[in-house]
Amino acid sequence: MKRLFLAAIGGFLLAAQAGFAQTAQIVTSLGTITLALDSAHAPATVANFIRYAKEGHFDGTMVYRVVPGFVIQAGSIDPTGKDRPLHQPIPLESGNGLSNLRGAVAMARGDEAASATAEFFIDLDDNSRLDAQPNDPPHSTGYAVFAHVTAGMEVVDKIASVPRNGGVGPFPDADPRAAVVIEKVIITDAVPAN
User: What is the extent of the structural domain holding 99?
Assistant: First the structure.
């Protein structure tokens, strides 16, 4: 049994050294968006996102904020406007070397630095003003980027173009009139091509 356990640990370490990377597929009612998760730069944030995804937290929720030229946002709100239960907030991992550029995925948060839970957004444009600023104390400002879109940016743009003012959720003017539903989020391991 001990030998089997050591072999499993060894296999995990070899996989990590070989360049395995985790990806997420966000399957929406308008198409699939594939993300590369960056645990090297945002380990706590990626682990948090994976936890919610594997628990099925995102399944059946909606994109509840669409701001063309800025972001689309989703996480915990179902099409009726009801919130899903949340885990404790995570530390802010902004200033990690990743920037809120078009296609970046970052955690939304409240006024407190360490207040992100399950809400995330995808940048529709280069929004570097959302990054931690160089002279700010570490991990005190900005929004932590933890992934980027590798396929399906056309789906993101399709979502960004839907009619709004649906009146549901925390941003009723930015809510799609016809719900854009996240059907499921699938986490996979993939080996990048050399």
Answer: 21-190
